[in-house]
Amino acid sequence: MSIRCQVTGKKPGYGNQVSHSHHRTRRRWLPNVQRKRYWLPSEGRWIRLRVSAKGMKTIEKQSIEAVVAAMRARGERV
Question: Domain residues for 41?
Answer without folding.
Answer: 13-74
